[in-house]
Write a structure and sequence with these properties.
- A hairpin with a 4-residue loop joins β4 (347-351) and β5.
- The protein has 23 helices and five strands.
- The strands form two sheets. A three-stranded mixed β-sheet has the order 3-5-4, with helices on both faces. A two-stranded antiparallel ribbon has the order 1-2.
- Helices cover 65% and strands 3% of the residues.
């Protein structure tokens, strides 16, 4: 089986004539859009809408293909100057689309009968939701050349600072037991069965951050100040206000979710204390044992094992999902293993020009790596469920982005736990799932709190590495409570988590996705096969509806705290199950 993904179906290289041809086509599309929007005041409104949308579609298809290829190449090898240069050329061209696009949206949003024209035209009708949002968001567009200026400045501002963080964390040497390794490999050791390995790896990880903390602090400060300035110029109340509006999500939904999480945090602290005590810690769980395996470790998996397990498992849920999983493994959609220069973590990127996805992981053969593959394949399935939407209807609401991925995790973990006969194996599986949900509840809450602290201080203060470490430990204490050893936290979590260096507040969607998926999975267990078409319809709807309206397809009210409580209660029951297993073993 392949060990790296195959990008040749997109382009065979940056010297591929098709790459140059598409870049020239993008330039022409931007030029045509610039000329067209300059004369919109004299255009017949419906014809103007149709022509602008057609060019907008063309630009999105071209930049999607070009930038997707460059970003995938860069993620596979962050040391590659070729990929970075190519991305710079692409975004240099595409940034010029910002001004004519803003002119079009300003013009369209002021048409008194805009929605009547949209709904009355066969070509435009599919973009009803897009134009509704356009009317709402037009108040936040910058006048004149403001959009183009911001887009061009972002290339050498926030985007460049983000690239530096990725480069530094993917290339920083880590000294571990006299040998030099990389950050992805050292972080994988947090799951090792040997407690001394975990502790040594944790200490080596923290030590390596000291080498890069200062430049990464500059990156974070610069990105957040740019975000604050952007929000002020556009008229948003705050960066969080901007995030929620761009995510098509109500503040009432976020408040309901966090209120339910606040009620259940002590239950998570109970789990952490129980795990800590089982591992011999009396003062709460030290950070380096957060991911310590418990019970009887499962077998090591090859990528072939992972393929067969997931294909067979998902066949019992939905043939369409199972077939896609098989294609992903068999047709080289996945870059599996860690290596120097490769980006850490895991992600899935839709490749719309192929109707496929590409997945990056840092596979180490543990069952958790199989779960990670299932998670990323959930994103790929979500992308596939959007088939049939027009090019501008492919982006789904940020909070819903983790729904399909986390639903896949629920399917995998429930099947594994049910199949386990040995109490030690069952403990290992239950605890593994509790590890994951604790990350997306407690840790995500700490990340949200940390980012809120950064925004609260950045306008008046440059925060050096020491200050940022202080914010991070305070956020962790608030979110993990007495579940963790207060003398053994992770002050440098802000350095390694890429979420702070991209979309603002890209943290709470993980908690949203985990809880929303658990609620959906409970429905599936109740309804069986009848649930599957509704689930796929809901995924298809994500691109053309708000988070609340999408959830309504499945009969869910996201502003009702009781929904979030019901999802958290399933976790509470698993914590009780884990504590009982620990007590039985003692």
């Amino acid at each position: 089986m392949n060990s790296t993904w195959n990008l040749d179906p997109i382009y065979t290289g940056f010297d591929d004539p098709a790459f140059a041809s598409d870049l020239e086509a993008l330039k022409k599309t931007v030029s045509d859009m610039t000329d067209l929007t300059a004369a919109l005041d004299t255009a017949e409104p419906t014809e103007g809408l149709r022509r602008c949308v057609a060019l907008w579609e063309q630009s999105e298809k071209l930049v999607g293909k070009l930038a997707n290829y460059a970003s995938l190449r860069q993620a596979a090898d962050t040391k590659s100057p070729e990929a970075g240069s190519a991305m710079g050329r692409i975004m240099g061209v595409y940034s010029s689309m910002a001004a004519p696009n803003a002119r079009f949206q300003n013009w369209a949003s002021k048409l008194p009968d805009l929605m009547d024209r949209v709904d009355g035209d066969d070509f435009l009708r599919d973009y009803h939701f897009l134009f509704e949002k356009m009317q709402e968001n037009s108040r936040y567009l910058l006048p004149g050349q403001g959009e183009e200026i911001m887009a061009k400045m972002e290339m050498s501002g926030g985007s460049a600072w983000s690239d530096m963080q990725q480069y530094l964390t993917s290339t920083v040497p880590v000294t571990y037991r006299g040998q030099t390794t990389n950050l992805s490999s050292i972080r994988n050791l947090a799951y090792d069965a040997d407690p001394q390995v975990r502790k040594d790896a944790y200490e080596a990880e923290l030590a390596c951050y000291e080498r890069i903390a200062d430049p990464v602090a500059y990156s974070l400060n610069s990105i957040k100040l740019e975000t604050i300035s952007d929000c002020q110029l556009r008229g948003y109340d705050s960066p969080l206000d901007r995030t929620l509006k761009q995510a098509d999500m109500k503040r009432e939904t976020l408040d309901a979710m966090f209120a339910a999480m606040d009620e259940y945090l002590p239950k998570f602290w109970q789990y952490l204390r129980a795990k800590g005590k089982a591992l011999g810690h009396e003062n709460g769980l030290p950070w380096y044992d957060l991911f310590a395996p418990m019970g009887k470790a499962g077998k090591k998996y090859t990528t072939e094992d992972a393929r067969n397990y997931l294909v067979n498992l998902f066949a019992g849920f939905d043939k369409e999902l199972s077939d896609m999983v098989a294609r992903a493994f068999d047709n080289a959609w996945i870059d599996f293993y860690p290596r120097d220069g490769k980006a850490g973590g895991a992600f899935c990127s839709g490749v719309e020009c192929l109707g496929e996805s590409r997945i990056l992981t840092n596979f180490d053969g543990m069952f958790t790596d199989v779960v990670t593959l299932a998670h990323e394949l959930g994103h790929a399935f979500h992308n596939q469920c959007l088939t049939g939407h027009r090019p501008l209807n492919r982006d789904y609401s940020m909070p819903l982005a983790e729904t399909a991925s986390t639903f896949n995790e629920c399917v995998v973990m429930a099947a594994a736990i049910d199949a386990a006969q040995d109490p030690e194996e069952k403990m290992a599986l239950v605890e593994s799932q509790l590890q994951d949900i604790t990350q997306v509840i407690c840790d995500i809450y700490s990340r949200y709190r940390f980012e809120a602290m950064v925004f609260a201080h950045r306008e008046e203060q440059f925060m050096n590495a020491e200050t940022l470490c202080g914010f991070m430990t305070e956020a962790q204490k608030q979110s993990y409570g007495d579940g963790l050893d207060p003398d053994c936290l992770h002050p440098y979590m802000w350095v390694c988590k890429s979420h702070y260096y991209g979309p603002t507040f890209y943290n709470f969607p993980y908690a949203f996705g985990a809880l929303f998926a658990r609620g959906l999975y409970s429905q599936y267990k109740q309804e069986g096969a009848a649930f599957v078409p509704k689930y796929k319809k809901m995924l298809h709807t994500t691109a053309v509806a708000t988070a609340e309206d999408t959830a309504a397809v499945a009969g869910i009210d996201l502003t009702d705290k009781n929904f979030w409580r019901s999802a958290l209660e399933t976790v509470s029951q698993q914590i009780d199950q884990f504590c009982a297993l620990v007590e039985a073993k003692a």
